[in-house]
Amino acid sequence: MKDTLNVLLSRLRMKQLQLLIALDDHTSLHKAAGAMSMTQSAASKALQELESMFEAPLFERSKSGMIPNQFGHCVIRYARLLATDLAALCEDVAEIRSGRGGRLAIGAIMGAIPECVVPALNELHAGQPGLSIEVVEDTSARMLLQLDEGRLDLVIGRAAVAADPSKYHYRPLGDEPLSVVVGYGHPPLLRKEVKLHDLVGHRWVMYPSHMPLHALLEREMDLAGLDMPDNPISTASTFVTVALLQSSADLVSLLPTAIATLFVRQKMLRFVPVKLKSPSQTFGIVTRKGGVLPPAAEQFIGLLRGSKERLEMQLENQGARKQKTA
């Protein structure tokens, strides 16, 4: 390993890593060379030099083009990280010179956005109005891949879904409770508790099978002794889910409670008093081990943890008031 490192430190050039990224994007040496403003023979030579450094082929030649093998995927991932870090370096230097903000890229699961991400972002932006902020909402698994590639600075989600959670720093933030909801046009439910059996006549709007909330609904149906609904409408979009629920009183869905509350307050949805048996899933702040966080990310993490402490204090005060009035 030491010999390989010495070879890379002495012979590796950024242009070679850019070529790898271009090959991954275009799957064609000719197109990648064109994108890099290189001749095809120069691109071929640069690739051969890289494969010589790693003592392994990085791509497989197929009818569909040049496809990275397991070594290629590994090197490309780190090439993207280096390219992203260099781009961030240039941006930070330019921002320092101009006296303006910087850039922060955040990934967040849906249920963490209203009560955790939004308040912290508002506070951060108030203090740094020149800061450029990107927020990605997706599943934890997909956002961790973007974190690995350097596309995100941090993720508010779950590290446990990764193949190797130990390569991340994880700081818990809270739980993501879920609620069953219907459109506001659905007749009000007067009962204090509704069972999943009572919703058999409804059609479900549910998450795609690769998403954790689909598996949770599947578990709830199994615990209730029910089969998964026939002919559901599948979507990962909150907007589509809410629009569908509003359009028909026969539809029902499962949403993170924090998200559902936003639409219930606007009289777009109604809560269905179904007591779910599965425990709420926890989420937290996920960052790469060994990575250097930009100052804006460090500040955002501090605001998130401060918001958590304030929320916990509010809940304690509410509990104390309830005990006094009991």
UniProtKB/TrEMBL annotation:
PROSITE patterns: HTH_LYSR. Residues 12-69 form the HTH lysR-type domain. Keywords: DNA-binding, Transcription, Transcription regulation. It comes from the Bacteria. Belongs to the LysR transcriptional regulatory family. This is HTH-type transcriptional regulator GbpR. The lineage of its organism: Bacteria, Pseudomonadati, Pseudomonadota, Betaproteobacteria, Burkholderiales.
